[in-house]
Specification:
9-stranded mixed β-sheet; two-stranded antiparallel sheet; about 30% helix
Length: about 280
């Protein structure tokens, strides 16, 4: 039996598309059928970055109903394991890694999407959990001018706005490493949610060893588990005038799908202009 949309790959839940700028990477979309209803309405870009298991499609599907209701197009990039070496699992989480810039890869994908869907408005929404939460907060530091709001879920490591440490634990050499200075004013305009489960307290899988290719001085200074590290990130952002909403989901461990009700509510508040969301 044929897929309902087999004649039209750009409606509803799409297949994965190779990024034309770098075909090692791909992305899938959810495009509300209402985009084609002739209304001319503007849509919001909602980017969801997967964690270490690369379940991009699952996260895309989890936001399909939200996208229908709130007139969003969902983009879920896929950054495969094994890009820089056969064992490379983590480089995308740090965005600037070796010669590869994952923000450039994402921007190439988004340019393709915007080219196909010209009624997308400027500021995007971004969510990532775990490895995706690492990507999301570092992307916030690098490109705040592109964001309307960001939801950062339970990152294993965090970068803090600390001028006494080099990137990635701090930002002393941020401009040299990323190619642009930190834009504090743009950062303060982004709506920021930090979200984590109340039982997300394991420490064994977040400690960065000195043998790790992602090791940097200060790698483990922000706390011994994800809850401590997320709290440190929140304090760091607030100390730089960035208001954050910290949400702890009761009874949930390190489970990305189980925090999404809170993420959807946050984004709904942003799109609806709900002042209570911060």
């Amino acid at each position: 039996m044929q897929d309902d949309h087999s004649h039209h790959p750009f409606i509803g839940r799409t297949p994965f598309f190779a990024c034309q700028a770098d075909m090692r990477f791909s992305y899938c979309l959810y495009v509300p059928p209402s985009y084609y209803d002739g209304s001319g309405r503007q849509y919001t870009l909602l980017t969801i970055v997967h964690g270490s298991l690369r379940t991009a499609e699952g996260y895309r599907d989890a936001f399909a109903g939200f996208a229908d209701e709130h007139h969003c197009i969902v983009v879920a990039p896929l950054f495969p394991v094994g890009i820089l070496s056969p064992e490379d699992q983590h480089s995308y989480k740090y965005i600037c890694h070796a010669a590869l810039r994952y923000d450039d890869v994402l921007h190439a994908m988004l340019a393709e999407v915007r080219g196909r869907f010209p009624r997308l408005c400027d500021g995007m929404l971004l969510h990532g959990f775990s490895g995706g939460g690492q990507f999301a907060h570092r992307y916030l530091f690098m490109h705040p001018e592109r964001l309307q709001a960001v939801s950062i879920g339970a990152p294993g490591t965090v970068s803090l706005l600390n001028p006494d440490r080099d990137w990635w634990p701090g930002i002393r050499d941020f401009a040299q490493r990323t190619g642009k200075p930190l834009d504090a004013a743009a950062l303060q305009r982004v709506r920021v949610q930090l979200i984590i489960g109340s039982e997300d307290t394991e420490s064994w899988d977040v400690i960065v060893s000195r043998e790790s290719p992602t090791w940097a001085p200060g790698a483990n200074d922000a706390g011994s588990n994800r809850r401590e590290r997320l709290a440190a990130l929140g304090a760091s952002l607030e100390s730089h005038g960035v208001p954050v909403v910290l949400e702890t989901v009761a009874g949930v461990a390190h489970e990305g799908m189980r925090v999404l009700d809170g993420v959807r509510a946050f984004f709904a508040g942003v799109l609806g202009g709900d002042a209570r969301q911060g």
